[in-house]
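Final report, closing paragraph on structural work. Over the funding period we assembled a curated collection of sequence-structure pairs, and we close with a single example.
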Amino acid sequence: MARVAILSDIHGNLEALESVIRAARAQRVDAYWHLGDVVGYNADPKACLEILRDCGARGVQGNHDLAALDPQIAESFNVLAYEAIHYTIRQLNSAHLAQLHTLPLCRIMEGGALLCHGTPETPHSYILNLYQARRIFNLMRKKFPEIRLCFFGHTHQQKVWIQDPRGKVTSYEFSEKTLALNAQDLYLINPGSVGQPRQRDNRARFLIFDTDQRVVTFHAVAYDVKRAQEKILRAGLPEYLALRLQDGV
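Its predicted structure, as stored:
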């Protein structure tokens, strides 16, 4: 394996997912990995699950995926997410639920990469600041001593955290840029969100990981936002879920 497209937080946005898949195929990727939250928020959870199934994507469960399997989890969601997950549950059949159920919470992939949604501990927690990143690096050193690279999602923002051999943690934000991985460093890398980007830029985000060259390339692609918005409104989902797509928030 050499080139892997890594996707996260698709959230039922078919138009965004289709644009990302086209862009990834144009880059001649060999495989697809996803970091969870395939469903929730947007109008096409079934189609998004089916696309990932058909392209052989491997991945992990996100907190919205878990809520689709156990609606009690959604009790802690905000009202928008709560309404959207109950819409999602009504759309899915037993095969879609089985597809979500078979996903692990985290998994180790080729190239020594660890996949998770929020953190390797739980899909419900975030890596948003230096303190949280340092804590997860410490966790990786204890529980995954052979792993130097963890891909995570949940924040809906492209982000890179790096810990050098001295233990110093720094952060970088990338957009359509390339990062060559240093074998001596540890990395926490977020590809951003396919279906609900929150970087004040409405393009769908993903990355490509070259497992041989140890290079990560960040990508952002335009998609038919208007069509995705129209579907949200026709589905009777909260209007703000459509509005936020335009502004990328």
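Helices lie at 14-26, 45-54, 63-69, 79-91, 94-101, 130-143, 225-234, 239-247. DSSP finds eight helices and twelve strands in the chain. We thank the funder for supporting this effort.
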